[in-house]
Design brief:
The chain is elongated and about 100 Å long. It is built from 17 helices and no strands. Helices cover 79% and strands 0% of the residues. 36% of the residues are buried. It has 2 domains: 265 residues, Rhopdopsin 7-helix transmembrane proteins, CATH 1.20.1070; 138 residues, no CATH class.
């Protein structure tokens, strides 16, 4: 019973994933990639469900055929291996090679259909009168036709796992080479991570097939290596989960990065800027800060923080001296700092000095503050990540950003 529960848990988890992806399947049914992904999850879920001993008993009773569940699971595993290969082919296929991709997918489908037909034929010709829920492979390893059925499905899975491992590894090397030449995008990084996971998963499936063959072959020589067969069941479940994870990483990874990782990283990167421009509690009423509810997503937290920073900078405008910005920018540029970082260093020095001037209630002239506001707006238009760069410059301090705001304040024309 415990083994059945252990198999039902991943089956239920994959079933939930399939339900979540059902709307996308309906919208993108014409896409071979979408169909193949959902088919893979469905077969993976079915493999866990029909391999559980309680389900084995129920299927055998309902069909009235002893060990019918065994041939059913073997056919599901063949279909799962074929779907993995078809998904890899559809992933790699592009506009120019679409017809070639379809031909390769048809070859894999035809080959596994022949294997499944041969497995069913051998089961019909063979004799398996005793129901075996966990050790069908080793128990009937020496039975005519049943042994051939076992070898067919095992070698089909070994070949599929080996082919998928080679394809994924070569694809990984090609992506790494292309990334070194043209740079790596977020999607490429997640794709390469998914391929590494797939290589590990297919190697696990390959090990499962080899161990199963060894356990079956041991029965031919009169030995009992059923312990290998029991261990292979664990390998199979683990390998299938790893393979599914490898396929899902490139699909959900970019979304995870764009919607969660980047907003959270940017939110915390702006903390230093927020601390500098935010008015102290003793300075009287400041700009009305946007309150973010605890249940809001990372993107909403980031938008509200950026809005609050802009409002605080607007309140600092009477204290911003463009002369400090210009001097700090030139000092940073003279030290070889890149143009975007030099611009951020100048603005960081200006805002830092403005916060100090606000604490002393010492505003600058209108002309000076107007030129500073214009420089800030121009820089924001040119550099979309300007606020993050300013916050980084504030965190590093004047020595590392190539500017000295207080010294600049003393030498400023204002």
């Amino acid at each position: 019973m415990q083994q059945g529960v252990n198999l039902y848990i991943p089956a239920a988890a994959l079933g939930i994933v399939l339900l979540v992806k059902l709307p996308a399947l309906v919208r993108g049914w014409r896409s071979p990639l979408v169909r193949t992904v959902n088919t893979l999850i469905l077969l993976h879920c079915a493999g866990f469900f029909f391999s559980a001993p309680p389900t084995v008993t129920v299927v055998n009773r309902l069909t009235g055929v002893c060990n019918f569940s065994a041939v059913l699971v073997h056919c599901i595993l063949c279909a799962y291996a074929c779907t993995c290969l078809a998904l890899i082919e559809n992933w790699r296929g592009d506009t120019e090679g679409r017809a070639h991709t379809r031909r390769r997918v048809r070859v894999w489908i035809l080959g596994h259909l022949l294997v499944a037909a041969a497995v069913i034929s051998c089961f019909i010709l063979g004799d398996a009168p005793d129901e075996r829920q966990r050790d069908f492979d080793t128990y009937y390893a020496t039975t005519p036709y049943i042994s051939e059925m076992l070898l067919l499905y095992l070698f089909a899975n070994i070949v599929a796992a080996a082919a998928a491992t080679v394809v994924c590894w070569r694809w990984t090397l090609a992506i790494r080479k292309e990334s070194r030449r043209d740079g790596s995008s977020t999607a490429d990084s997640w794709l390469r991570a998914g391929l590494y996971v797939l290589v590990a998963g297919f190697l696990t499936n390959l090990t499962f097939g080899v161990v199963k063959v060894l356990a079956v072959a041991a029965r031919w020589t009169g030995r009992n290596w059923d312990a290998l067969n029991d261990g292979a069941a664990t390998f199979s479940s683990f390998g299938a989960m790893v393979v599914t994870l490898g396929f899902l990483l490139p699909i959900f990874g970019p979304w995870f990065t764009e919607r969660l990782v980047k907003p959270v990283r940017t939110f915390f990167a702006l903390a230093h800027l927020m601390r500098v421009v935010r008015p102290p509690a003793t300075s009287g009423p400041g700009p009305l800060a946007l309150a973010t509810p605890w249940y809001a997503g990372p993107e909403q937290h980031l938008v509200n923080r950026m809005t609050n920073i802009q409002d605080c900078i607007l309140q600092l405008r009477p204290y911003c001296a463009d002369g400090i910005r210009e001097l700090a920018y030139r000092e940073a540029a003279s030290k070889g700092v890149r143009q975007p970082d030099a611009v951020a260093a100048g603005l960081a020095a200006m805002l830092e000095a403005a916060a100090d001037a606000r604490a002393r209630t010492a505003p600058v002239g209108d002309d000076e503050s107007s030129r500073a506001a214009h420089a800030l707006r121009s820089s924001e238009t040119e550099y979309p990540d300007l606020l993050v760069r300013i916050s980084r410059a504030l965190r590093l301090g004047p020595r590392h950003r190539g500017a000295a705001p207080m010294a600049g304040a003393q030498r400023s024309p204002t």
